[in-house]
Amino acid sequence: AYFELGSMRQKRMLNQFRGPRMLPVVGNAHQMGKTPTEILNRFFGWWNEYDKGNFRYWIGYYSNIMVTSPKYMEFILSSQTLISKSDVYDLTHPWLGLGLLTSTGSKWHKHRKMITPAFHFNILQDFHEVMNENSSKFIEHLRSLATGDNIFDFQDETHYLTLDVICDTAMGVSINAMENRSSAVVQAFKDITYNIKMRAFSPWKRNNLLYRLAPEYPKYCRTLKTLQDFTNEIIEKRIEARNSGVESKIQGDEFSRKKMAFLDTLLSSTVDGRPLTSQELYEEVSTFMFEGHDTTTSGVGFAVYLLSRHPEEQQKLFEEQCEVMGDSGLGSDATFQEISQMKYLDLFIKESQRLYPSVPFIGRFTEKDYMIDGELVPKGTTLNLGLLMLGYNDRVFKDPHRFRPERFEEQKPGPFEYVPFSAGPRNCIGQKFALLEIKTVVSKIVRNFQVLPALDELVSKDGYISTTLGLPPAEKAKRDAHIHKYDPILSASMTLKSENGLHLRLKQRL
Ligand code: HEM
Fold first, then answer.
1. 188: which of 20, 175, 226, 306 fits an S-S bond (Cβ 3.0–4.6 Å)?
2. What is the b/e burial string over 462-487, where b = at least 16 CB atoms within 10 angstroms of the residue's CB?
3. Where does the chain bind heme (predicted)?
């Protein structure tokens, strides 16, 4: 009775929205599905049913609106007040606390202003050196895997690369994850990101109290402690080194790099006229560690996945590399400027983020009533912004299941019709960093290897992707017949590493 009475006003207001019929107490929870794939299919099913617009659904007494209309996107993403995150972000709190991603109100405003200069053009150029160094190492490692018809899990390998890049740029230390992959810290980073995503899709494990009963809970606590100790120790050492003025003098030491790590920017910054507290430093550095490597892993992974399925587009990319780098420059590092000249690569990454955005959904929570596009959205509503769905809207992207990078040249989507990095004041602060890293790695891969799927028959024959997300049921059934166990995106979800991984083969070009 308490919950029913408490949600009466919301129910009355939300009835104006289209959405599936709900049952008492459970709402629509019984229809959601259990696995990430089932959940995504359910969302796409409703989205098609409600004419590719917004729809509301209830999980028990929690009201949700799936937002995909550009007008709503614009209102929400441009708002300076509707910036509180939905409860799914609470899953990151034990690790990240309240850093830039999860904080709200004046803390977020002040920290955003303070952190913005950390992505200044000059700093990004220094970071590009780190990206180049690490991707060269990565290429050498891939070379050792590119023997004969060897099949390996590409996503898994990429994870270590992006971890090395973010550790060096965020904290100024090298953990050499590519070589020390079994170290406790490296595994801890890997485990915690998997854990957060897995819990987001699991209604029971999402609950903190119930999660304590899960068999993996003790391991989760150990992982958390490993990460907290590691990050706090780096911060302490960095502060000590700064205080004693020995930063640049220790030869061969992990603190000897001259470039400015993100942590250094934080240590030289102030909020309300005071330096950041240890807790604030910890929260922001950890946020960057999380946001800065998992997203780029899937960014590189999905781009390379598409390379393997679409040989014509791969060839076009290779030709562009020859043009920009010159035949004799194919083995060298691309400069910042050369990367910006790679126009087809830019289109290719845009198209891969349309189909497989690294961040498929983002969430907000209304702390008061909002009037959006003539509709009253009541206080206490969770707004799930379906960035993933935007890419499959055939009113914006003609023939959306077709992989065609050129589409971004021919017709630009509106400012709120394609937003893989979000938009407005709370957009991705690391967008330029991310694109630079993804392009640096992909450009090197294309120059050095021909990327092939695990099995030849997985190559797309008609330019269409094999993912069935968003297709009407009849077409979906037709394509389902071609699903192959090696295809990671079909066999699992967009966001969770599948049981099969992203299996590829490489043939050396250089
Ligand atoms: C392909 C790569 C990436 C994608 C697609 C991506 C996407 C996004 C999206 C959609 C948001 C909005 C989240 C929300 O509103 O809840 C976001 C926020 C954020 N991103 Fe990224 N991101 C990427 C890489 C990075 C990198 C490399 C960094 C750091 C080096 C980074 C740091 C952040 C931070 C700190 C926020 C929170 C910003 C704020 O709330 O003010 N991201 N990102």
1. 226
2. eebbbbbbbbeeeeeeebeeeeeebb
3. 428
